[in-house]
């Protein structure tokens, strides 16, 4: 039957009436038949009854085995055999042994029972009972005189509420809700026996229900109640010292807590705090905890909280699991905490807090904990009983995927940011800025005015008119604004060693408008894309000129200026990089050319990170997010900052992330970890939103990071203690959601300042590559130099055409083009500039341009039609350079290589192939050389090659060799089997003078051997400095994790946890 119809209670009651022992056990999906078999052995020998709660959560494979076991036991019982052989041991079967099953049909995470199991049981359907009657009996038993009348009123209240109020995931008007109202009324009755009973019930109804309603439903509920209880006063609440203590703890009366919560705690021991991020859920229970603890001598009690995020670990690590080889049991974090708290016999309270998304799987195992049994059932068959001093609390954003069975068992408190508003945030922030600034009444007044006049209109405009790259909440943006202001105020804060003269503060007072305006641009206005930015810029300029006259330049977008504190004027960002020169000591891929975008983004990041705030940069690929972050981390920050770079991908697990970070931390003192003392560590997470969502929409690696952001640490999985971290700052970058990336939870983004990267404009791209190409071609003739702007323009044109016309489809899923492709074309062109002879004439230059475009765009096209289309686009451009097609395409194929002079020659010259026949002969000669060279293959099968070198094969070899010779060039070769992918790659490796590394998948090849191979490979390249090609074939993939490791190598050049202690010493 459905939830809350008394299935378990009836079974227990029957057992009580017949004086039989009845064991209630909550089943979970990780139970196996061995464990259930053990369970049955004990029950049969003792002749006890057993009630399996939520039986259909067990996996279907296990259920059919259970059916076999029961058939055997029931068979013995029917025939009256005293002893049988069962699961490998001899047991006696007492005739009183009996099994009951309760289940809710058709909820999330449930299975259908197999027929051979149904046949062994008699089914009884449970219906929803008559609440009025139950209520009447219970009210009488609590000593109410008007039991019948009150019970009916209460039932009508619930009926009307369920019909008239909005339907939310966390509303529940079932039997359990009725019971908690009656229990509350009972408590009140025993506290004040003489009070009017109508008032008592009214108060109980309000206490239990009001906290969970949305803001808009409260007046409706009040109306229902006043209709049913005409003329009954609302009783006054008496909370004693608690309320005064709460305001003392807040030191900040604007937190506006609903003091109803102190009471919900007493009715049920499961409590859910629900609501969107920023509604004050976390601060709420902290304040309550402290207030209660401070009053522990006045009839309240001390409270200890234990916090964890259930999604940042696996299910087994939460509850506990069997070791698969040895079948040993290891406790999970929750089991450990409950064990510790059960031992505590004093009257202090323990709150166990689950701060993380609820889903049907892990929460169901809590069901027996939450109802009247108060037992936690572990898979080892062990049952822990909770003490009356323990409360389970869940803190969640929504209950979209929780099953009704859970919702009906918990008390709900709903909190939403709307009822808070932004004012409390502003007020409490004004109390937290440095004291010497607070003393200036003028500054504070001015700030209040600015917040008042500018903040709300901007937020409204943002919501109505703009498109954000990542969704944000108003309270998050307000806090971002305050963080930027804090970063500016930080230098005025006084410490024991530093006094600030009052002239400085006068100075600040004069700049306050400008700082505020600048901060608002980079917090509230920094989250939207490029089109919205133009609209916003005009709107904002008109808005703030009405409030303040701050000398802001009239032309151009507001995003282009920054406030120069020394000169006290707004300046364009270009001033910061006006003197930039490309230095010749860098290679092509190391050069970074500053633009307005990169300059201002790096400036903002530096400002925030150096104050210890977390920053997140969303934006499309190829806008330089990672590039800017790396340049900030490696060159712009002082000595005291270290960094760890992580790159997330779809397969990243939370455990892997946790290990990576843990391995880089030092222990500071007991339970506290961090970078070496005096340093700060920045964790740079690239592609933050790549991890794939689970069935119920959570992303464990992100939940792990959120646990750190909310509670400054996480649990050590080995010894289950909480580890706190200090001096760690997160810097994150991510692409826009879509295409394998997902939306991440708002409870994570709210901790970051968000700097969105809009798409680069064409003018900027043009200017970037012109600077770059001119630098490489600076030794060439003027005719060549004059052609450069046209070259750059044409490559960009080709890129936009290809990107808009050749779109990815399922059969061409790799047709994804981004900024990196433009950069690759120029990288190829610039690599031909080592020798001025090669490109001394325009036709040769255009030939090179044609070849590079062909390599970058043409090589990934799969159909002849697409290839033809691309060639036509390219050949249309020849007229722009006043050259005919014949002058450029002198040979049948255009091939550029750098190995024609021989393998050993240095420096290698990248030059076109003029005579194709000669080229093929040369290749045959190289093949003989390959077959005689035996030092070439380092690891993997050695075999001689007997290829016929025909034109296509030679062209392929040249293509692969071109990729190998580029720094950071990695190739993905795909085609049907037998098209020569492996042999040609080997040949190209040989010609580039690299060594070849392959893995050999033999019978017992496992992940450990894979890790060893990878380690060998990385050691050779990194330590011995040898050039290697690692050739990996799709038939060698045994485990998805392999691709994950390769992905990590391509992104960060390293694999997590691959080196042990002794490798580090080597």
From TrEMBL:
Residues 945-1065 form the Dynein heavy chain AAA module D4 domain. SUPFAM superfamilies: P-loop containing nucleoside triphosphate hydrolases. InterPro entries: AAA_6, DHC, DYNC2H1-like_lid, Dynein_AAA1S, Dynein_AAA5_ext, Dynein_heavy_chain_D4_dom, P-loop_NTPase. Its main location: cytoplasm. The keyword Cytoplasm applies. Residues 1-282 form the Dynein heavy chain hydrolytic ATP-binding dynein motor region domain. GO terms for biological process: microtubule-based movement. It is found in: Cytoplasm, Cytoskeleton. It comes from the Eukaryota. Keywords: ATP-binding, Coiled coil, Cytoplasm, Cytoskeleton, Dynein, Microtubule, Motor protein, Nucleotide-binding. Residues 776-867 form the Dynein 2 heavy chain 1 cytoplasmic ATPase lid domain. Residues 447-574 form the Dynein heavy chain AAA 5 extension domain. One of its GO terms (molecular function) is dynein intermediate chain binding. GO terms for cellular component: dynein complex; microtubule. Belongs to the dynein heavy chain family. This is Dynein heavy chain 16. It comes from Tetrahymena thermophila.
């Amino acid at each position: 039957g459905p939830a809350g119809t008394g299935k378990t209670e009836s079974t227990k009651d029957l057992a009580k009436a017949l004086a039989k022992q009845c064991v209630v056990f909550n089943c979970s999906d990780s139970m196996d038949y061995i464990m259930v078999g053990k369970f049955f052995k004990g029950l049969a020998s003792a002749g006890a009854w057993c009630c399996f709660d939520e039986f259909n959560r067990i996996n279907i494979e296990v259920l059919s085995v259970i059916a076999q076991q029961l058939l055997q036991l029931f068979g013995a019982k029917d025939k009256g055999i005293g002893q049988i052989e069962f699961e490998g041991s001899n047991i006696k079967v007492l005739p009183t042994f009996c099994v009951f099953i309760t289940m809710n049909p058709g909820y999330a995470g449930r299975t259908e029972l197999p027929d051979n199991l149904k046949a062994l049981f008699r089914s009884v359907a449970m219906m929803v009972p008559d609440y009025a009657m139950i209520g009447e009996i219970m009210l009488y038993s609590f000593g109410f005189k008007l039991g019948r009348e009150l019970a009916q009123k209460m039932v009508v209240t619930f009926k009307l509420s369920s019909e008239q109020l909005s339907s939310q995931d966390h509303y529940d008007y079932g039997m359990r809700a009725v019971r908690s109202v009656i229990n509350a009324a009972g408590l009140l009755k025993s506290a004040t026996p003489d009070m009017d009973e109508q008032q008592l019930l009214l108060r109980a109804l309000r206490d239990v229900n009001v906290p969970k309603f949305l803001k808009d439903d409260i007046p409706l509920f009040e109306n229902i109640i006043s209709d049913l209880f005409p003329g009954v006063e609302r009783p006054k609440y008496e909370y004693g010292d608690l309320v005064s203590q709460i305001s003392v703890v807040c030191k900040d009366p604007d937190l506006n807590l609903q003091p109803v919560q102190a009471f919900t705690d007493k009715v049920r021991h499961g409590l859910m705090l629900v609501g969107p991020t920023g509604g004050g859920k976390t601060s709420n229970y902290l304040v309550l905890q402290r207030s209660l603890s401070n009053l522990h001598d006045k009839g309240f009690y001390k409270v200890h909280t234990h916090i964890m995020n259930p999604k940042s670990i696996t299910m087994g690590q939460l509850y506990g699991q069997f070791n698969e080889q040895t079948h040993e049991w290891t406790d999970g974090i929750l089991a450990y905490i409950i064990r510790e708290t059960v031992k505590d016999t004093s009257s202090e309270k323990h709150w166990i807090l689950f701060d993380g998304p609820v889903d049907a799987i892990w929460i169901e195992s809590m069901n027996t904990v939450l109802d009247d049994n108060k037992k936690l059932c572990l898979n080892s068959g062990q049952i822990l009983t909770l003490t009356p001093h323990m409360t389970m609390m869940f803190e969640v954003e929504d209950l979209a995927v929780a099953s009704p069975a859970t919702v009906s068992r918990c008390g709900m408190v709903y909190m939403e940011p709307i009822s808070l508003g932004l004012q409390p945030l502003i007020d409490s922030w004004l109390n937290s800025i440095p004291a010497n600034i607070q003393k200036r009444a003028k500054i504070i007044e001015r700030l209040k005015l600015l917040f008042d006049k500018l903040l709300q209109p901007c937020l409204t405009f943002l919501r109505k008119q703009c498109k954000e790259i990542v969704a944000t909440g108003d309270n998050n943006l307000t806090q971002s604004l305050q963080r930027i202001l804090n970063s500016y105020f930080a230098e005025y804060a006084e410490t024991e060693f530093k006094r600030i003269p009052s002239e400085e503060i006068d100075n600040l007072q004069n700049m306050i408008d400008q700082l505020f305006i600048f901060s608002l641009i980079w917090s509230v206005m920094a989250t939207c894309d490029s089109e919205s930015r133009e609209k916003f810029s005009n709107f904002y300029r008109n808005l703030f000129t009405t409030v303040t006259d701050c000398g802001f330049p009239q032309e151009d977008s507001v995003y282009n200026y920054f406030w120069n504190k020394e000169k006290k004027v707004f300046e364009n960002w270009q001033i910061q990089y006006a003197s930039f020169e490309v230095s010749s000591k860098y290679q092509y891929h190391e050069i970074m050319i500053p633009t307005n975008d990169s300059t201002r983004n790096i400036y903002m990041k530096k400002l925030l990170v150096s104050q210890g705030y977390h920053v997140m940069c969303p934006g499309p690929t190829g806008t330089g997010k990672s590039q800017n972050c790396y340049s900030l981390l490696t060159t712009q920050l002082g000595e005291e900052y270290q960094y760890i770079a992580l790159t997330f991908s779809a397969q990243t697990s939370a455990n892997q992330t946790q290990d990576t970070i843990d391995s880089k931390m030092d222990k500071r003192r007991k339970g506290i970890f961090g970078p070496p003392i005096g340093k700060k560590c920045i964790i740079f997470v690239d592609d933050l939103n790549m991890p794939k969502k689970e069935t119920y929409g959570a992303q464990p690696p992100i939940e792990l990071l959120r646990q750190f952001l909310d509670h400054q640490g996480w649990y050590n999985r080995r010894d289950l203690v909480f580890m706190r971290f200090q001096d760690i700052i997160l810097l994150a970058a991510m692409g826009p959601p879509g295409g394998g990336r997902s939306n991440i939870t708002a409870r994570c983004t709210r901790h970051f300042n968000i700097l969105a990267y809009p798409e680069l404009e064409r003018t900027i791209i043009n200017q970037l590559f012109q600077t770059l190409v001119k630098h490489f071609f600076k030794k060439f003739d003027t005719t060549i130099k004059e052609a450069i702007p046209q070259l750059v323009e044409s490559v960009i044109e080709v890129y936009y055409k290809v990107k808009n016309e050749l779109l990815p489809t399922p059969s061409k899923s790799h047709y994804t083009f981004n900024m990196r492709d433009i950069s690759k074309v120029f990288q190829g062109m610039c690599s031909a500039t080592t020798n001025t002879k090669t490109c001394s004439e325009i036709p040769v230059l255009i030939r090179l341009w044609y070849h590079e475009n062909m390599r970058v765009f043409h090589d990934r096209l799969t159909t002849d039609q697409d290839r033809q289309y691309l060639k036509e686009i390219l050949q249309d451009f020849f007229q722009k350079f006043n050259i005919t097609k014949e002058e450029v395409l002198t040979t049948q194929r255009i091939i550029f290589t750098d190995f024609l002079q021989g393998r050993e020659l240095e420096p290698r010259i990248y030059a076109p192939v003029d005579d194709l026949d000669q080229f093929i002969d040369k290749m045959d000669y190289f093949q003989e050389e390959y077959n005689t060279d035996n030092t070439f293959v380092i690891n993997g099968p050695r075999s001689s090659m007997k290829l016929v070198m025909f034109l296509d094969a030679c062209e392929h070899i040249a293509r692969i060799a071109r990729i190998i010779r580029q720094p950071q060039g990695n190739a993905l070769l795909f085609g049907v089997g037998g098209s020569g992918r492996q042999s040609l790659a080997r040949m190209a490796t040989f010609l580039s003078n690299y060594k070849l590394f392959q893995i050999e998948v033999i019978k017992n090849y496992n992940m450990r051997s894979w890790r060893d191979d990878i380690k060998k490979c990385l050691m050779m390249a990194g330590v011995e400095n040898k050039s290697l090609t690692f050739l990996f074939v799709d038939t060698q993939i045994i485990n998805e994790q392999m691709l994950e490791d390769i992905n990590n190598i391509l992104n960060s050049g390293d694999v997590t946890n691959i080196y042990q202690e002794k490798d580090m010493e080597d």
